[in-house]
């Protein structure tokens, strides 16, 4: 056998080996992150619209052959609201985790539409599919607003946090709201997963650079070309007025990979907060309280765990930063 044939065989075997070592881990990682549902944690307390005296009505938001769980929140009659805020949640219990923020925007005179993305909380689905599914939920909500006789003539502002921040910005590549507010968002779906892998350390961290390509391929198969939408590019190209807010101490989305750092243009306003982590709309004390809540707990018994969560100060963990929320209100009011 000629030497070059042996070389070609060796290169082929090496290529197959490299694919196996990177593709299959990427599939496993994607399934681990997106294959399951995102629902309420039974031990947590979630505030309800009734806690804030909000008027609530269900709104049909059609998505991929299903109807997402969605509601329109307001304080005054919807017809009297000046604008519509489409609020998109992050990973976790869907819109239920953000009722304090939804109530805040409703009390500013807005009608607030919040939909649970596919596979989250009240919506159907065995899993969340991928990060771009959040953008699809925002697009579906926007279409619902423009199909409602009471709402279609009003200005529309997208607001989102974390995954929701990516969702509202990526959606600007398809629809054009009057403004967008993104808190603690990431720019690239595959980069975000790899950043999370790096934070885990060990073998998982070492795999991060090698699986990103395959994560992009998986996004392509699931969502088409839009599956790898860059948030910054979508907003810059759309020309939509945007406010990006990010905490310097954010351990979930590194500041260097956030639109608050990467986005440029006359339509872009950024706010980087030195003392904030991943929830910059909350006070520093509330973020510390959240870290306590979501940190590792070593309960001696189930009864002890129940007692801890029953006594937990849920209002303290959702306390809003008036300065940050005020800045968002002013941005929205000036659109």
Structure summary, number of beta strands: 10
**Global outline:** globular
Strand order of the largest sheet: 1-4-6-5-7-8-9-10
Report the end-to-end length measured between terminal Cα atoms: 73 Å
Helical amount: 40-55%
Give the amount of beta strand, in percent: 5-15%
Mean pLDDT: 93
Number of helices: 12
Listing every helix as H and every strand as E from the N terminus to the C terminus, the arrangement reads HEEEEEHEHEHEHHHEHEHHHH
Q: What can be said about the biggest beta sheet?
A: 8 strands, mixed
Topology overview:
Layout lengths: L2 H32 L20 E4 L2 E3 L2 E3 L1 E5 L8 E6 L10 H9 L3 E5 L16 H15 L8 E7 L1 H8 L8 E5 L5 H12 L1 H22 L7 H8 L3 E6 L11 H4 L5 E6 L10 H11 L7 H10 L2 H4 L4 H12 L2
Helix pairs in contact: 1-6, 3-4, 4-7, 5-6
């Amino acid at each position: 056998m000629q030497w070059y044939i042996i070389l070609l065989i060796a290169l082929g075997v090496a290529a197959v080996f490299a694919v196996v070592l990177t593709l299959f881990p990427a599939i496993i990682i994607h399934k681990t992150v997106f294959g399951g549902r995102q629902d309420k944690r039974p031990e947590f307390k979630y505030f309800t619209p009734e806690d804030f005296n909000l008027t609530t009505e269900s709104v049909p938001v059609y998505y991929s052959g299903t109807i997402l769980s969605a509601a329109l929140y307001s304080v005054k009659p919807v017809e009297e609201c000046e604008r519509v805020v489409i609020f998109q949640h992050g990973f976790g219990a869907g819109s239920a985790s953000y009722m304090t923020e939804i109530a805040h925007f409703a009390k500013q005179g807005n009608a607030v539409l919040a939909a649970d993305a596919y596979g989250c909380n009240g919506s159907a689905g065995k899993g969340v599919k991928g990060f771009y599914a959040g953008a699809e939920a925002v697009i579906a909500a926007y279409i619902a607003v423009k199909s409602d006789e009471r709402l279609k003539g009003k200005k529309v502002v997208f607001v989102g946090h974390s995954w929701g921040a990516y969702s509202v910005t990526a959606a600007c590549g398809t629809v054009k709201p009057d403004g967008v507010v993104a808190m603690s968002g990431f720019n690239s779906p595959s980069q975000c997963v790899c950043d999370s892998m790096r934070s885990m350390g060990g073998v998982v961290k070492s795999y991060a650079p090698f699986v990103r390509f395959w994560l992009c391929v998986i996004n392509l198969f699931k969502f088409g070309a839009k599956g790898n939408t860059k948030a910054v590019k979508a907003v810059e190209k759309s020309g939509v007025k945007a406010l990006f807010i990010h905490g310097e101490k954010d351990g979930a989305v590194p500041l260097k990979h956030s639109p608050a750092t990467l986005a440029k243009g006359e339509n872009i306003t950024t706010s980087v907060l030195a003392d904030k982590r991943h929830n910059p709309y909350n006070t520093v004390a509330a973020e510390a309280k959240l870290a306590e809540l979501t940190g590792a707990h070593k309960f001696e018994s189930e009864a002890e765990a129940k007692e801890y969560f029953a006594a937990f100060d849920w209002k303290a963990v959702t306390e809003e930063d008036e300065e940050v929320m005020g800045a968002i209100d002013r941005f929205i009011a000036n659109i």
